[in-house]
Inverse folding.
């Protein structure tokens, strides 16, 4: 009878494990339960020793698979409540991860459940964690009863691998890759966009992003420019701010959230130590949260006119006059191109006429006829028409235009402007004629006197 219960309990546990893992795969549980209510789900046929009964397969009332860890103890019954007692070792974890329902081995669910339970008991015996869980009859079964070769082909290889198993570093984590944390104005000048940001996940299927302290209208866009807030691991996004809403430096936070899920082998037991313990795969859920700070600086509008506002060379709003003075290439020569006083391209003569300080006095500086700074005497010599007559105008001894009487009084004699060569020639002809006439008069006078 004891062997019968031994076989029946094995079958029950195998059944439970399958159902539980199947539900876990679709995330039926969101966290490891602190207790479970046991259900005797199925009695499996004995596939190795050909006894009337095989193992009992258990599940929780939620459908999670449970396997027995104590074949020689009193079996559990439907409705028994078992509390979370411990986490199983890496070997049990390996068996549960590589058998039904996590990873079916054969085409028969019934055989898979039987295989999982038998492997757990065999492993516990081999690692001295059980008290002869399996009978010698079972362990030494040959082809005469083990007609499906379950022991040599399935159970023993699985147990050997389980004995070598170690826990992997599968702790859920989230690593954010932010790169350059500066914003850049898009080519159409409609938005400021961050560099590509992403998060790498371990044992989490997706992450969500929320913004805080962001300007109005700020959105998250994927690599195709479409708005999106939930992303897969390593899937990137950008933060996009409307250019019209970024009027000053803004510090904003990009907040990441994800849920890490790892299946672990958990052991449950009742308050009665004479009753069997059970084990199954359940999810540990880990909330993952982190954030990244970004700084967005608006690009200054330098030497631009927008919405009737003028922006000077420092990006500040200025009046139109200051804008033209600071921003247009006024009176400059760039790459042999001449820009006049209005910033337009002109010829060299126009440039000289408009831009050079020719024959003027500015801030007590004297500019000569070439636009260079000179001393006052050179300025007067080059620039002032002193005691000259030019273009019908009389210039006195200070270079100012005066009437003829003042000119005669200041200058004494009419002198035609030196740049009028024709007038100078006429003057010399008149003077020469007067001298010739005077010479002839003297000759005639002396001749007459000699005849007397």
């Amino acid at each position: 009878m004891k062997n019968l219960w031994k076989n029946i309990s094995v079958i029950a546990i195998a059944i439970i494990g399958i159902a539980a893992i199947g539900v876990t795969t679709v995330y039926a549980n969101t966290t490891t339960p602190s207790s479970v209510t046991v259900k005797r789900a199925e009695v499996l046929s004995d596939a190795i020793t050909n006894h009337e009964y095989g193992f009992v397969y258990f599940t929780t009332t939620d459908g999670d698979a449970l396997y027995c860890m104590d074949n020689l103890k009193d079996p559990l019954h439907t409705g028994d409540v078992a509390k979370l007692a411990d986490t199983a070792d890496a070997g049990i974890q390996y068996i549960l991860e590589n058998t039904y329902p996590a990873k079916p081995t054969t085409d028969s669910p019934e055989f898979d459940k039987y295989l999982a339970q038998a492997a757990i008991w065999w492993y516990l015996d081999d690692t001295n964690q059980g008290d002869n869980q399996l009978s010698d009859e079972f362990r030494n079964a040959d082809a005469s009863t083990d007609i499906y070769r379950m022991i040599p082909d399935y159970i023993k290889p699985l147990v050997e691998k389980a004995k070598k198993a170690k826990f992997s570093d599968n702790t859920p984590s989230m690593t954010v890759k932010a790169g350059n944390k500066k914003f850049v104005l898009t080519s159409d000048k409609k938005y400021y966009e961050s560099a590509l940001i992403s998060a790498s996940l371990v044992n989490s299927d997706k992450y969500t992003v929320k913004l805080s302290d962001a300007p109005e209208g700020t959105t998250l866009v994927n690599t195709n420019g479409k708005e999106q807030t939930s992303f897969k691991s390593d899937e990137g996004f950008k933060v996009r701010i409307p250019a019209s809403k970024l009027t000053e430096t803004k510090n904003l936070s990009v907040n990441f959230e994800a849920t890490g899920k790892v299946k672990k082998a958990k052991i449950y037991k009742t308050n009665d130590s004479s009753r069997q313990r059970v084990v199954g795969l359940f999810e540990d859920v880990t909330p993952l949260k982190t954030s990244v700070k970004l700084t967005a600086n608006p690009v200054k509008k330098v030497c631009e006119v927008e919405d009737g506002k003028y922006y000077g060379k420092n990006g500040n709003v200025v009046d139109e006059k200051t804008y033209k003075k600071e921003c247009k290439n006024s009176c400059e020569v760039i790459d042999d191109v001449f820009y006049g006083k209005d910033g337009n391209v002109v010829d060299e003569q126009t440039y000289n006429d408009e831009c050079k300080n020719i024959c003027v006095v500015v801030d007590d500086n004297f500019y000569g006829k070439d636009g260079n700074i000179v001393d006052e005497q050179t300025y007067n010599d080059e620039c002032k028409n002193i005691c000259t007559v030019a273009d019908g105008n009389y210039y006195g001894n200070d270079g100012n235009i005066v009437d003829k009487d003042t000119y005669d009084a200041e200058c004494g004699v009419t002198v035609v402007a030196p740049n009028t060569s024709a007038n100078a020639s006429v003057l010399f002809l008149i003077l020469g004629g007067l001298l010739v006439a005077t010479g002839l008069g003297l000759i005639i006078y002396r001749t007459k006197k000699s005849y007397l």
In short: The longest helix spans residues 421-451. The chain has a mean pLDDT of 81. The radius of gyration is 53 Å.
